[in-house]
Design a protein that fits this description.
Blueprint: H1 3-28, H2 34-39
């Protein structure tokens, strides 16, 4: 039965620590960009990638074997 107070103090320490970290994060303003960041993967890529610098493959097709 001596483990119950230890578990109680550990759980209270975790709760208090999480509240302190939440308040600290909210005061720093880390949560202000969350709406924009969650929509970022849905945006279209507007920048074009440069063409490959290697030899250009021929667009002609070879005849199929029969």
């Amino acid at each position: 039965m001596s483990i119950v107070p230890l578990l109680l103090f550990c759980s209270l320490g975790l709760v208090i620590g999480s509240i302190v970290l939440f308040v600290w994060s909210a005061r720093q303003g880390d949560c202000h960009e969350s709406d924009r960041l969650c929509l970022l993967p849905l945006e279209d890529d507007t920048t074009s990638s440069p063409p490959p610098s290697g030899p250009v493959a021929s667009t002609e097709t070879s005849p199929e074997p029969r």
